[in-house]
Amino acid sequence: MKVGIIGAGSIGLLFASYISSSFEVMIYTRTKEQAFEINKYGILLQKGSEQTISLVNALPITEWKGTEALAIVAVKQYQLQSILEKINHLPFIPENLLFLQNGMGHLAMLEKIRAKNIFVGSVEHGAYKESANKVNQNGEGKTNVAVFQGDADLLQQFSAPFLKEFPILVQADYYEMLLNKLIVNAAINPLTAILHVQNGDLVNNHYFFHVLTKLFEEISFILNLENQEEHLKQIIDICKNTAENRSSMLKDIEANRLTEIDAILGFLLAEADRQGKKAPQLESFYYLVKGKEMERGRVS
Amino acid sequence: MKVGIIGAGSIGLLFASYISSSFEVMIYTRTKEQAFEINKYGILLQKGSEQTISLVNALPITEWKGTEALAIVAVKQYQLQSILEKINHLPFIPENLLFLQNGMGHLAMLEKIRAKNIFVGSVEHGAYKESANKVNQNGEGKTNVAVFQGDADLLQQFSAPFLKEFPILVQADYYEMLLNKLIVNAAINPLTAILHVQNGDLVNNHYFFHVLTKLFEEISFILNLENQEEHLKQIIDICKNTAENRSSMLKDIEANRLTEIDAILGFLLAEADRQGKKAPQLESFYYLVKGKEMERGRVS
Questions:
Q1: Reaction catalysed (chains A, B) (predicted)?
Q2: Which of A123, A134, A259, B242 could form a disulfide with A44, with the two C-beta atoms 3.0–4.6 Å apart?
Q3: Which residue from A minimizes the CA distance to B202?
């Protein structure tokens, strides 16, 4: 099976590295220079002290034709719009598309694209891109995937080879799957990004933990969560299990990149608005992260 | 007139420097070493490119007898408790005490001390202590003072000589005076401390400004403010006029010191509680600053 990976950020490189052991992978990059580096040196995966090199073909995104059996779209949510426009103008209508964006803001956009089967996924690996062709994986994780539209046949076939070293689990309900991830991201990411702290600090510092629980109360209220205790426990467990990690949003702020705040808190605020509910803390944290994005590149 | 200054932080050094031109000043320090430095080299005041040296006598706080005509208590709010205990055990009952703490949390404590006249003040100078005997004054400012208990005679006499270069203005209503300052501090200090930004960023970054106005709404609600527009305008003006300044709370966080958060947001939260009102943003920001204090000395 031929698999295309759209986007060569941390998640794109991570997937290319693992998946290329079982499938023929073509990774599509934003720049020619990155494609050149990957073609020349392969993709380096660093995991603890272990380093693996995977020889993967790369092309600039402008060369994508849509012919692969599966294309994994691994760009950030805020880069998705231009990719979706591209998809609707590909020479071939894609058979299977898997979208790996955080949050739920992109679901409405996916309804409008042409493809036979559309899948969504939620990635729980911690990874960061060290250079054009090097990705660092910290901690074990998994990927959940589910059908958004169409049937699951290809998804089953795709997920089978990686069970042990790179688990890809097919879930029944895409909405519940993404919601679960959204709740975790909404609680952990903005706070760590605003405070510049590691995930573990949100539970180890009891003042920060107080704010985390108050924020979670607002999230529960907006989403009408019934199993609140379970969700809060999941958030706490993730903070503990990834105590030394910096959340993706914190890493984005530190690297002067845009964050996924619109896909996460923006989605929840729109939901609050739709239900006529107030969410003063969510709103504060949303604007604080937006403000931090605006400070990008400024010396403080 | 003999004036004692209790505490040789930025405000104590600043006052000693200016006041010693008209009065006989004794500054009381926490450590013997600092008293030694001040006695040997005087106090250096840096204001822009201008430097002034004032020869001021200094003693460790343990030597304070309470005999001066006026004692100015210039310690931080969280150091006040031990000073108040000291006052109640001085060999002489002090004639006149002027307290320069931020916030309003200390007012209840002042009711219990023995002294003929008690004054409170609110300092609007920007100053930071560069070393044991050097203070840097950035920007022009003034000091407001008012009677808390007793009569104003000495206050008038004390404030008269400094009108131009170091204005000390006697106000009629101590409560209104401190409240005004509290509102400004509550809006500006926690946000700048959490975000690590200068005062001007709160109005120049429109996302941060949105959070500032939402926070101000909660402050207004708790204090039942009538002239909201005026207060908000004052906050905005101060942010603009001190755009390049770091708030005292930010400087405290950056220097790994405790902040005055309890005197400022703590006071407002207690007030909200007393009235049965909710203040979710104030509460979040209170705990975020408390959490930041707890991170002191940790490497992030």
A1: (R)-pantoate + NADP(+) = 2-dehydropantoate + NADPH + H(+)
A2: A134
A3: A291
Count CB pairs under 8 A between chains A and B.
76
B209 burial via Cβ count (<10 Å: 0-12, 13-18, 19+): middle
Indicate if the alpha-carbon torsion angle B22, B26, B30, B34 is positive or negative. positive
> How far is Cα B300 from Cα B277, in angstroms, rounded to an integer?
36
The residue in chain A having the minimum alpha-carbon distance to the alpha carbon of residue B205 is: A291
Q: Give residue limits of the domains in chain A.
A: 2-172, 177-290
The DSSP-derived string for B189-257 is HHHHHHHT--TTHHHHSHHHHHHHHHHHHHHHHHHT-S-HHHHHHHHHHHHHHTTTPPPHHHHHHHTT-
- Let me know if B164 is a catalytic residue: no
Q: Which CATH class is domain B2-172?
A: alpha beta
Burial B76-110 (b: 16+ CB within 10 A, else e): bbbebeebbeebeeeeeebbbbbbbbbbbbbbeeb
Contact criterion met (CB < 8 Å) for A287 and B194: no
Helix, strand or coil, per DSSP, at residue A298: coil
Given A76, A181, A251, A292, the catalytic residue: A181
Average pLDDT (B138-157) is: 89
Picking from A205, A287, A294, the nearest residue to B295 by CB comes out as: A205
**Quick one: pLDDT band at residue A141, thresholds 50, 70, 90?**
confident
Q: What is the per-residue pLDDT across A166-224, written as a single tens digit (0 to 9) for each?
A: 999 999 999 999 999 999 999 999 999 999 999 999 999 999 999 999 999 999 999 99
Chain A residues near residue B198 by CB distance under 8 angstroms: 300
ipTM over 0.95: no
Let me know if the fold of A2-172 is the same as that of A177-290: no
Which residues in B lie closer than 8 A to residue A207 (C-beta atoms)? 287-288, 290-291, 294
Predicted pLDDT of residue A114:
87
3-state helix, strand, coil in chain B (%, to 5): 45, 20, 35
Q: What is the pLDDT of residues A240-276, one digit of tens each?
A: 988 998 998 999 999 998 999 999 999 999 999 999 9
Say yes or no for a CB contact (<8 Å) between B290 and A207: yes
Residue from the list B194, B207, B291 with its beta carbon closest to the beta carbon of A287: B207
Residue in A281, A291, A292 nearest the CB of B280: A281
CB contact under 8 A, B291 and A211: yes
pLDDT-derived band at A164, boundaries 50, 70, 90: confident
A201 contacts B287? CB cut-off 8 A? no
Determine the topology of domain B177-290 in CATH.
Answer: N-(1-d-carboxylethyl)-l-norvaline Dehydrogenase; domain 2 (1.10.1040)
